Amino acid sequence: MDSTPSPSSSSPFDLVSSALGRYIPRGGAAAAAGTADAQGDRTTHQRVPDNPAAGRQDQILGAVNLDGELRITRCNLDAPVFAGLDAVAGRPFVDLLPPGDVPTVTRRLRQVLETGEAHVARIQRLRRGDGSELVVSMSILPAAVPQEGLTVSVIAMARRLHLYAAETAIGTSLDIGDTAQSLAQSLLAWGDVAAVDLDFAVWTGEGVTGKGQGRIRLRRAALVPDRAWPEGYVTPGEDLPSDASRLLAQAVRRDDTPQAIVMPDREAVERVLGSPRAMRALVPGDRSAGVVCIPLVLDGTPPVVLGVAEVWRRADCPFRDSELFDLQELVARTAHHVDLARQHQREHTQVLALQRRLLPRPGGDTIEIASVYQPATPDSAGVGGDWVNSFPLPDGRTALVVGDVVGHGLGAAATMGQLSMEARALLSAGLAPDEVLEHLDETVTLLDDAESGLAAGYSALGSTCCIAIYDPVSHHVALSSAGHLPPVLVSPDGHAGPLAVRPHPGLGAEFALREPFDVHTFGAPPGSLLAFYTDGLVEDPAVSIDEGIGRLADAVSRVHPWDALQQAARYVVATLAPEPVRQRDDVTLLLARMIGYRKGDTATWRLSARYDAPARARAHVSTLLRQWRPRDDTRDNVLLLVSELVTNAVRFATGPITVRLIRAGHGLLCEVGDTGNGRPRLSRGGLLDDGGRGLHVVHRLTTRWGVRWTDTGKVVWAEVAR
Question: How many CA atoms does the CB half-sphere of 600 hold within 13 Å?
Fold first, then answer.
């Protein structure tokens, strides 16, 4: 073997050899790795001498340099702990690996060669010439010049160092699959094949307590090494057969207590599993094999089994007691990481379910709706607070709402749900968009109060919201915004641009910063397209926010009037956010294509508030109904309804009266507007009482009725089934 080069060298191999290869550990763990592991006994501990001259005997680090073909060019593996490793110049490095690990390690080596990104600290086994194996922590470092190849540094793993490194690697992710994979890779140091099978409830984030004894449904979460497996063998993502799950559960729950079990050879495996189907699903090959099964247990009363970890090895290499102790300690140390991933999955699933529920449904006859919600990367702190909603209002208009709640996780999700439901209730009650935002502003302020807040430690101050109401008769949109980015309007001729909405500090701003919410009204003729979105769609660190909005306007302007709107929404998101893996925030888009009522489906009359107004209204409506030809009973009900509503308007209001009749879906919508500000209320009086008799008639004739407020008064609307 080559000797250690001088410290003046600058290649990764020289740096590792000089900086790490001469490091002298001071402690019992290093002695165990340097001496005991070389003898094959991990439980033997010897004191490391304090004399630096003895350091060469205790060295646990080494380096191997490889060329572009992954052949060894030089190495520094002189320490006794590396004795038996045939690291000869010109030999392929993969010859030092167990056969089953060759594909995975080769892929990692070539990946570092191609990308130049180091692959650091993976637990790996190296095979000695006599067939024994050495557990190391292996890092793959690229050379400064690609033509110089790679440097592989190895650290012979002492028992405590191995356990610490494994637990550290396992606890780096809140993803269930990644956590299980890290555990399986660490367990591979003790065997030829390692698998982790988890209770299905862990995958879904459900609670796993209170399950009946022996009742467990297992799904394979991880399997190493990466190789071709025999037919019928369970691979990651697949459920274990019911009998295999039951047998494993019974085996590790002996005497109602989760315990590790060892099946030293194939005969013992067959006695426990019995079923040929279970053998095909669990045994990784036809050769004789032994296995240790260790339950992943959460301490409690009773203890909770999250799943089972299995380590398989050849029957001629039985598990020693010290190895079983190490395996159980590692699994016990890491079970809580699996439970943390389960809890994160549960929160993620709950928030995502709420997010999906708030997504708008397809529009009706007067408007077409499409939306796309793309959550941030799975390793983010949970799903964000972006939400969009659209819903028909009882009076025939359509509400479009988009908001962005500060933060992620359950606190943001709870606030998001509360604001969304409150906005819907207030809009359905007839309030204007600016009035709704005033209520939402007050709600956010109250939620931020630590004493009465929804979630301690969470603040929704600075959340944004934009509300628009589309009138399909007048083809106008009334819009109010609380700090939200301006919607993009595409006119029927294809011209696109953001609406000139006055900036606002957002919901829950300090009292000194609060500004009144403006109402922006604009025309949206049939064929217009309106795009609502959240900042995750247009924000890019490389460009300004205005340029991001311009990109959105350009993408939306290319949507053809004949294009399916849902497909167009996906196209816009794919154009602006093509790499969801790299996005840092949720992406939300709502597209609304205005259709409106046909001209022949609506009629409007303006009448003076005189005594003859009801008769004149009946005459106009009667003439129109002869053209629409509804059922006779519907015609009579509409005429009576119009008469009562106009009579009330003349009696309790002043100024002109507006009567509007709309043929919508399966009903006729009648609206009577006046300049009064009093709210009609249905009293408990009977039909013979003078006060409130008209509203009782309205209530009995209609399927629903209500009031909405305008700048000049109010509109009482009512719907009659056709």
Answer: 3
